[in-house]
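Fig. S4 source data, part A: sequence.
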Amino acid sequence: MVVHRGSCHCGKVKFEVDAPTNLEISECNCSICYMVGFQHIHVPKSRFRLLEGKDVLAVYKFNTKVARHYFCPYCGVKSFYVPRSHPDGISVNARCLNQETVSSIQVIPFDGKNWETNVHELRMRTLYDESD
């Protein structure tokens, strides 16, 4: 595990996340992830720290209203959110990490268009838990 630092495009939202240097990410094809190009690193909330920007974050909820999509209202970037698949966790956008702490990224496609049918796969393979 290393501490990865990341931010939105303008830098008003800054965060840290504890995760391996060799990242295994999920790339989802659901309506929102596909449109924004989100690459998921799912972690427990204990491995995520919002350093700056809590006061500026905006939130977007749709459909079931369970997922909370946080984004910077200045630059529009969604660098993390609370996913419906892991409501006790955080999904960080790998595209928002400073690349100097990332050794490699393995992209694993996830069929989010058929979320209800496939969510069990996502829950089994992508949450970096406390034992990692």
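Fig. S4 source data, part B ends here. The chain has one domain: 2-125.
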